[in-house]
Amino acid sequence: MLMDKYKWQTISFTCDISTEFGEYTRDFYRGTCNEFAAALTSQQGYKIFSQGANLSKADERISALQDAKLYSRVIVVISHMDYVRQVLLTASQLNMTTPEYDAAKVFESLFIVTLARLPATTKTLALFDAIEHVAKDSYNLSSPVTESGLLYGTSTYSALHVTAQTVGEAIQLNKSLSDGSRLVKLMHNRTFATPCGVCEMNHNGDLESIYAIVGMSQQTKNFEVYLYTHEGKVLAVKSLEQAEKTAN
Fold first, then answer.
1. Taking a C-beta distance cutoff of 8 angstroms, is the pair 41, 168 a contact?
2. Would you identify the CATH topology of the domain 2-109?
3. What is the pLDDT of residue 160?
4. Which residues form the signal peptide (predicted)?
């Protein structure tokens, strides 16, 4: 780990509190910051500085970077990719990077882990279409569903069905619903059928799916899929179709 190699002991976390992409996204960033901070704090020797900032605003990006720099040379930013790029450019403008270390080089060394295919089915898309109509007719909102919105929507919709099935089983077995930890454990090592497709939960209660590792190509300067993973294993394939066949 680089922290150990260079004997860095302090990390600055900057978590985006902007609600531009919704309160769910903001809460997700905040939760991620807290989880990382807790994990690193539990390891002896690490000190954590954590702050929230609205990274959609230029003045707050500047202030957040200046504050983070006071505490650590290791700065972790958790935000939407659009604002991560803005933060990197701001850092360059503040002379926090060397001339040869610009945003392009940062993205060349960046890897993104994401779901390989959006878990959207005909039923899911029909639901979102109905929501769009209600939003337009009742609230005069006509914004189309974005790719990220579709991802959050399908994930939430799947989670709702998984939770409902688990609660139903607990009631049938006369188990208490007040013990959240025990209720969640009922989801481990299970497969659930939802309108968004099959949800496979592993022994930790995490969703098993095919994930893509995406990075910027030094030749084309575009983000491309480098490899696919499933259940923690790298799939030696070159296409998503092959990955799905291998995983199944």
1. no
2. Rossmann fold (3.40.50)
3. 86
4. none
Q: What is the mean pLDDT of each run of 10 residues along the chain (248 residues)?
A: 73 90 81 81 79 93 93 87 81 74 58 63 77 81 66 77 89 84 86 82 78 72 72 69 68
Q: Which token pair is 118?
A: 């959006």
Residue 189 backbone zone (phi > 0: left; psi -120 to 50: alpha; other: beta)? left
Task: Output the pLDDT for position 51.
Answer: 92
d(CA 88, CA 63): 14
Are 71 and 25 contacting, i.e. CB atoms less than 8 angstroms apart?
A: no
One-letter amino acid at 190 equals R
Residue for token pair 């969703």: 207
Q: Which amino acid is at 191?
A: T
Chain centroid, CA 189 distance in Å: 22
Pair 211, 191: CB distance under 8 Å: no
Beta-sheet strands, E only, within the chain: 10-16, 47-53, 75-78, 111-115, 190-194, 197-201, 207-208, 210-216, 223-230, 233-235
Q: Quick one: pLDDT at residue 6?
A: 73
